């Protein structure tokens, strides 16, 4: 395998072109939006730029339509299939194991706010995860009844269902536990105030 600097986006594009056949960057974007985008997010600009970069690497080939909308069409090359096979059979790459969750980040620094603020964050996170869970369950019902559906896609969807269900349970527990926290008795140290109260105080005229 040649020493190429390929990103996860590179392999995502290679995989979709290999599975779908000749397609445009817009076709790739549509597939990402309804599937992979739920668990691997990145700027859409990368989807439009990456195919041409892979052409330069010899992993995709591209041609321009001579009629109609004159779209740029991409197909995978033999070298691209070899690169893709090597990636698919390689173990976990530590550099691509990421979890970026703003809710967890706010919870981690929750001691800088009040229990009420944490309750508000937890309630919002629980609601957001519940919405995604409902969407995943509906998608699973639809795909599981389709004989042409990809069983591997269903497995990834099942992971998403378990993750969202666990997240709903987790944030529900945080909401209850922090709601039960009583205000700290005065000990000379002023406990953190809620962000809403702090904003109101800043806006109030000086006495």
TrEMBL record:
InterPro entries: Tscrpt_reg_PadR_C, Tscrpt_reg_PadR_N, WH-like_DNA-bd_sf, WH_DNA-bd_sf. The lineage of its organism: Bacteria, Bacillati, Actinomycetota, Actinomycetes, Mycobacteriales. Pfam families: PadR, Vir_act_alpha_C. Residues 179-207 are annotated as: Disordered. Residues 99-170 form the Transcription regulator PadR C-terminal domain. This is PadR family transcriptional regulator. Residues 13-85 form the Transcription regulator PadR N-terminal domain.
């Amino acid at each position: 395998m040649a020493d190429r600097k390929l990103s996860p986006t590179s392999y995502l594009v290679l995989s979709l072109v290999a599975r779908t056949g000749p397609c445009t960057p817009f076709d790739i974007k549509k597939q990402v939006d309804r599937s992979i985008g739920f668990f691997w997010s990145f700027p859409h600009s990368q989807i439009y730029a990456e195919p041409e970069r892979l052409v330069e690497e010899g992993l995709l080939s591209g041609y321009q339509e001579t009629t109609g909308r004159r779209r740029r069409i991409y197909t995978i090359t033999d070298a691209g299939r070899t690169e893709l096979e090597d990636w698919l059979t390689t173990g976990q790459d530590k550099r691509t194991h990421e979890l970026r969750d703003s809710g967890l980040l706010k919870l981690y620094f929750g001691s800088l706010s009040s229990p009420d603020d944490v309750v508000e964050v937890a309630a919002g996170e629980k609601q957001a995860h519940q919405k995604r869970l409902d969407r995943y369950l509906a998608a699973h019902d639809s795909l599981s009844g389709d004989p042409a559906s990809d069983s591997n896609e269903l497995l990834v969807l099942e992971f998403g269902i378990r993750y969202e269900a666990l997240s709903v349970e987790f944030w529900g527990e945080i909401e209850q536990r922090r709601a039960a926290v009583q205000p700290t008795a005065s000990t000379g140290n002023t406990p953190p105030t809620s962000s809403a109260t702090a904003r109101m105080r800043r806006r109030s005229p000086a006495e």
